[in-house]
Design goal:
single chain; alpha/beta; Spore Coat Polysaccharide Biosynthesis Protein SpsA, Chain A; two-stranded antiparallel sheet
Amino acid sequence: MIITYFHLIFIFSLISIFFVFNEIVIFLFFLSLVMKFIDKTFSKIKSLEILIKQNEEEIKQKEEEIKQKEEEIKQISDPATWKQIYSINNNYQWKIAILLTSCRRPQVEDNYLVSINMWLKKTTLPIFIVESNSKGFPEFENTRLRCYITKKPIRGDSSSFCERDSILEAMEHFESEMKNYNYIIKITAKYYVEIEHMIFKLQNKKTDLIYQNSNQKNWNNSEIFGFRPELYLYFRECNTLMEHFIYELSGKYNFNYIRLPKINNILLSKRGDGSILQKL
């Protein structure tokens, strides 16, 4: 068989076409890889943009929350703003009054100020306070806080007797106002607790006393307790620890009582021995 010039051209043409086709295939293959890479990259960029946007929204929300907290802290920490926040208002929705007991000293002074501020700001309740260290709370002048400073000197032998005398003096001093309420809720002034939402449970005509949740045999914690205003004279009989006295009060006179659920100690205020009750 004789291979002519045209045969050679045809053969070389086929070979050339084969190599060109291979190059095209290889090019298309790499092009598809590049396109996939670009597509994945753009997908990641888009996902990253969405994540960044979400983070920006979260950061903005956090900044607003921080700004709000800072404003609250400013109001709590700056006595100059308190008079602008609170106005005197004697038209109360509830027939329950809060009686705070305090003994203003440097180690608890800031705690008292923050707590009282929160009682005024976060509740609509009538707030009374009896102060047994002759200092009062001039920072809250022209607010709805009703303050009374005890006449009797502080007794160092027992905080229970000091509290007993404070309650008796305050009830006598504010008698014309206190008789208008169904219950007086006595609370140690360094504590702020969210009790207002529980009030509808307390307004029971059969209830004489309201006890704090924390209790044990022959003992009921006295950071919080409530009583009908006409029963305050029974505190004259307190010649023992207040925790023992209020525990025995219901049984001795057959008073009806209810027990509060556990309430958060929001300010984490310390007790006299330095311990902290997470819940009262």
